[in-house]
Design goal:
193 residues; alpha/beta; Dihydrofolate Reductase, subunit A; eight-stranded mixed sheet; 4 helices; 21% helix; globular; disordered C terminus
């Protein structure tokens, strides 16, 4: 059998846990920091090639569309599902708008068709996925900056959830990647849905 089905929440955040400035600018993503003992930056293209499907909220999608005018569409031809109740422009054949139930999406649509699903934003979608306990892991890339204000990664989820640290890597550009397992069945070590 192939790889197990995994839903990963991925976010780039400041040290104080912000995922966006109040004006949504992303210049803070670029860091001039250097950590001498850090690992070399990973081959992003090879890693991204392992992702089967992206899921994002409508505000993240609108922001990605705007940024794509300057930087290009970062999600390539990978199926991308945008959770929204609004009519939004769909300019790519691999982008689908979805306004239904989140659990149904994960269990009935994503699980039978994909192995490696990444939730790439935003804060409201992350809150819903965490509350429904639909994520298998959280990957948080912490940049060496304190923004002081903005949109928090975890915005009042309203429940405590224990996590299990799977991996941590400090890179030579000063970023740190933290990988946590969520909802793990302690007796088998496998995700339980």
């Amino acid at each position: 059998m192939g790889n197990p089905f995994t839903v990963t929440i991925h976010m780039v955040a400041s040290l104080d846990g912000m995922i966006a400035r109040t004006d949504n600018s992303i210049s803070w993503f670029e860091t001039a920091d250097h950590y001498e003992n850090g690992a070399p930056e990973p081959d992003i293209a090879a890693f991204v090639a392992t992702i089967d499907c992206y899921v994002m909220g409508s505000h993240t999608y609108e922001h990605a569309l705007e940024l794509s005018k300057t930087y290009g569409w970062p999600y390539g031809n990978v199926p991308t599902i945008v959770l929204t109740g609004r009519q939004l422009p769909v300019e790519r054949p691999n982008v689908e708008l979805y306004g239904g139930d989140l659990k149904s999406l994960v269990n009935e649509r994503l699980k039978p068709n994909f192995n490696n699903v990444w939730v790439v934003g935003g804060a409201m979608l992350v809150k819903s996925i965490m509350r429904e306990r639909l994520a298998d892991e959280i990957r948080m890339t912490v940049l060496p900056i304190v923004l002081g204000d903005g949109t928090p990664f975890f915005d009042h989820i309203g429940q405590e959830q224990p996590l299990h640290l799977i991996d941590v890597t400090a890179y030579n550009n000063g970023t740190v990647e933290l990988v946590y397992a969520t909802r793990t069945n302690l007796s088998t070590g496998t995700p339980s849905r």
